[in-house]
Predict the 3D structure of the following.
Amino acid sequence: MSGKGSSTAIDGIARETSDGPGPGTLTDGFHLVIDALKLNDINTIYNVPGIPITDLGRYMQAEGMRVLSFRHEQNAGYAAAIAGFLTKKPGVCMTVSAPGFLNGLTALAHATTNCFPMILISGSSEREIVDLQQGDYEELDQLAIAKPLCKAAFRVLHAEDIGIGIARAIRAAVSGRPGGVYLDLPAQLLGQTMEMEAGAKSLVKITDAAPRQLPAPESVARALDVLKCAKRPLIILGKGAAYAQADDDIRALVEKSGIPYLPMSMAKGLLPDTHPLSAGPARSLVLKESDVVMLIGARLNWLLSHGKGKTWGDQPKQFVQIDIEPKEMDSNVGIVAPVVGDIGSCVSALHEAMGGDWPPPPVGWTDAINAKKQANLEKMAPKLRNNNMPMDFHGALGALRTIIKERPDAILVNEGANTLDFARSIIDMYQPRKRLDVGTWGVMGIGMGSAIAAAVETGKPVLAVGGDSAFGFSGMEIETICRYNLPICVVVFNNNGIYRGTDVNPSGGTDVATTVFVKDSRYDKMMEAFGGVGVYATTPDELGRAVNEAMDSGKPTLVNAVIDEKAGTESGRIGNLNPQSVVSKK
Ligand code: ADP
Ligand code: TPW
Ligand code: MG
C-alpha cells in the first residue's frame, strides 16, 4: 500500500494512520484501484475526466500518480498505446462511460492490432439498469462491445476483486503477444467500501508479468540450417523486435551473421540506419532477390505484401520467422523454420548456436546490395539539399534529417501520407524506439497523443512531423502540450490538403474538392493561442533553424512548414491499394 502514515485531504474516507490501519478503518473502490496500480508500478494515467471517474483522477493525483488530461479520449488512448510500446508496461487510458469509452476504443483496437500493451479503464453505468436496457445515464454494454476489439476484457463488480482484476488486466496486456485490454469499472464499485486491512490483502503484486518464452532447441537448429544454406539471405526487423528491448542481442546476431537487414518503419534505429549491413536504401532489390528471409518480430501482412507477388519477385523464398505468437506462423505463406518464443531468448539462442565460425553470406550478394545502396543514396543526396520555396518534401525533410542526425536521442513521431512515406525513407534513425508512427493500420491521428506520451515516458525531446490532414485529427492536443509544458516541436507539412492541395471539384460546383483544405492555413497561430511558440517557415533553412531552436529551448513549438501544394502524390506510396472504378473517369 502507498503512503503509509499519510492521508488524502480530499478523501472523505479515513485512510491509514501513523500506526497503520486500525480495525474498522475503511478503504474504498477508488483507493483500491489506485493502490493496485501503484503496487504494480503503474504511475501514469492518460485520461479525460467526467462521471464516474473524475474523483478517481483526483485521488490518483493526490496519491502521487501522474494523471494527464487530454481533450479527446482517442488521443489519450494513442498516448497509452505508445507508452506501452516504449516501456513494455501497459499504458493506461481512463475514460468515462459510453461516448468516452467509444472514443477510447479506437485506440484500444489500434494497440491490439500493433501488439502494444495497453489497458483501457472505463467507468460504466449500473449493470442492473444497463442489462435491462432501462436507459441509464450513458448506458452501454461496454464489455460486450470491447471484447472483439481487444485481447481480453474484464469487469470488476466487487471491491475485493479490484486487486485481482487489475492483475489480470496487466498480465493479459503484456504476456505472450502484447495487446489491448479493457477493464470495466462500474460507478458503484468505486464507492464500495471494505476494511482497510482486508483491502490491502486483496491486492496482487504480479510476479513476472511477461515470462520469457524459450524457443525449442530443434527450432533453433532448423532455422540455422536454413540460414546456412542461403545464397542471398535477408533479415527483416519489425516493431516486435523494437518492443522486445533485446537491442544488444539483435545487433550481435545481425553482425555475427553478416546478413543484410531491412528495418520495418518502427524498427528503424534498432541498428543505426547508417550501419554497413542496413539494406534500407536497397529495399526493392533485397525483397525481390533474397532466397532466405528471417523475420524477427515482423508479420507478413500488407506492409510486406503478404510475402508474395511482384514485390517479392520470382525467386523461390524460404522464410524463417521469430515470433512469440505461434498462430502467426504460416499466416500468409508457409514458414519453413518457425521459431516461437520471445525475441530476446530466440535471438540469443540463435546467436549461441551459431558458434564461432559462421560463414558470411556470399560476397556477390552483399556487393550487389552495397552497389544499389550507393546508387540510390547518391541519387537522393542533391534532392535533399535543395532550398526551394515553396518547399518540396525532399528539401523540407533534408533539413529534418540533419536535425535527427545531430540529435539522435530525440524521438520522431510521424504521420500523414506523403509526409509519412518520404520521412520514413529520408530520415535516418540511429537509436532504438525513436521512430513512432501510424503503425499497422496507418492511422491518422496518432500524432499528438504519441508525442505527448513519448515526452512524458522518456523525458527526451520530441519532433512530431505530420501532414496537415493528419495533424487535424489530434491538433487540439497542442493545448495539452502547452498545459504540461512538454518539449515537443510539431512540424505541420502544410500542402493545403490530403495528398495535395490542387484537386478540383469534378462537377465544377461551389464546394471545393474532397481532399483540399483552406489555403495557407496558419497552424502556427493555433500554437500561439495556447502560449506556445508558432513559426511560419517557407524554406528548408528557415524550417531547420526553427526546429533547432525549439529542440534547444524545449518550449512547445509548432512550425507551419509551407509545402508546394503540387508536390505530393495520391495516397503517398500506397496509391496502388486504391480500388479503380470502371465507370467514372477522373
Ligand atoms: P512491423 O509492422 O514492424 O512489421 P508487426 O507489428 O507486423 O511489425 O509484427 C510484430 C510482431 O512481433 C507480432 O507478430 C508480435 O507477435 C511480435 N512480438 C511482439 N513482441 C514480441 C516479443 N517480445 N517476442 C517475440 N515476438 C514479439
Ligand atoms: C483514422 C485515410 C490516409 S492519409 C490521410 C488520410 C485522411 C491524410 C493525408 O494527408 P496529409 O499528408 O496528412 O496532409 P500529405 O503529406 O500526403 O498531404 N482516417 C484515419 N486514418 C486514415 N489512414 C485515413 C482516414 C488517410
Ligand atoms: Mg497534406
User: Anything to note?
Assistant: Residues 7-202 form a domain with the Rossmann fold fold (CATH 3.40.50.970). Confidence is low (pLDDT under 50) at residues 1-12. Residues 467-469, 495, 497-498 surround magnesium ion (ligand 3) (CB under 6 Å).
